[in-house]
Design goal:
Elements: E1 32-40, H1 63-87, E2 92-95, H2 99-102, H3 104-112, E3 116-119, H4 133-151, E4 157-158, H5 169-175, E5 180-181, E6 191-193, E7 200-202, H6 211-217, H7 222-239, E8 245-251, H8 253-256, H9 259-275, E9 280-283, H10 285-293
Parallel strand pairs: 1-2, 1-8, 1-9, 2-3, 4-5, 5-7
Antiparallel strand pairs: 6-7
Length: 294
């Protein structure tokens, strides 16, 4: 038989089955860390990347899809903010810095309530994955400085637009002083990643419990997505009796901020608040990174 060549590896971390680990409980002895990954994004008009409600009309700018996404910034995000306030839930705000030019008052409303601001590139109309390393590093540095200048909060975590990485992205994030990345969805606990500039924590960010792949790609209804959140929580709460776990909920206001979906998101989040009073740590990705590193 021919010899099999070794598969290409990222070399960032080793295989480590979850049942063999000894991660201590979260603060207060809580077993399940739950966070909201709330994406605030802005898109170029008529060009670049973006989730689509429907195929773009031929000829002229893509008004339909741009306006649908813009609903999230004008209406949906404010409705979600009201819900988070009602339930007293913190948020990890995953932020395009183009919002500081477009609707700075929206970012300010989340920063005012003490939510964590997380780097998410300048706009989701472009991807950093194909950039030369120095251009990518300049993007990371520019976004970092803008968030710190505008909101007085230097971000420690990053999620790439469209979760598009170059081979150098973890190295560049560590070089820029970031403590964690949300790009990797390979585990239910934080993972230490090797980079050229020291360790980088990978905090779990969901690609299943995420409204874009579920609602846009798989065409799941609002009630079904809410049921999915509840089922994920109930199962992970049981699993967390064996070891502390992380459950992220990835949300975009142009999707879950639509009234017919918001009603069901409210139902799901209320269930978690009521059912998890003793064992759930409502938190943000940055605090998860800090607790795992302590």
């Amino acid at each position: 038989m021919p010899a099999h060549r070794p598969l290409v590896s990222h070399q960032r971390f080793d295989y480590d089955p979850i049942h063999q680990r000894a991660l201590k409980a979260w603060p207060g002895g809580r077993r399940l860390a739950v966070y909201l990954g709330f994406n605030l994004e802005h898109f170029a008009f008529g060009e670049g990347l973006g989730a689509r409600l429907a195929p773009a009309a031929q000829g002229g700018p893509d008004v339909l899809n741009y306006a649908w996404r813009e609903y999230g910034n004008r209406v949906g995000a404010w409705r979600c903010l009201e819900l988070f306030e009602q339930l007293k839930l913190p948020a990890g705000v995953i932020l395009n810095t183009a919002l500081y030019d477009h609707c700075p008052e929206l970012v300010a409303a989340f920063a005012k309530r003490g939510d964590e601001l997380i780097g998410h590139g300048h706009t989701n109309a472009e991807s950093q994955g194909g950039m030369p390393p120095e251009d990518e590093f300049a993007l990371i540095e520019s976004c970092t400085r803008r968030i710190e200048l505008e909101s007085g909060q230097r971000p420690t975590g990053w999620l790439s637009p469209w979760i598009a990485e170059s081979a150098a992205t973890p190295d560049l994030l560590a070089r820029a002083g970031y403590r964690y990345t949300l790009n990797w969805c390979h585990d239910d606990q934080p993972t230490v990643m090797r980079t050229a500039h020291g360790d980088l924590c990978a905090v779990p960010y969901p690609q299943e419990l995420n409204d874009i792949p579920m609602i846009v790609a798989r065409q799941m209804t609002g009630p079904d997505f809410a049921d999915m959140i509840v089922d994920q929580f109930d199962e992970m709460l049981e699993q967390s009796t064996q070891q502390p776990l992380v459950m992220g909920i990835a949300l975009h206001p142009y999707l879950v901020g639509q009234p017919h979906r918001l009603r069901h998101l409210r139902r799901a989040l209320t269930h978690i608040v009521q059912a998890g009073q003793q064992d759930v740590w409502w938190t943000t990705p940055g605090r998860i990174c800090e607790a795992a590193s302590a």
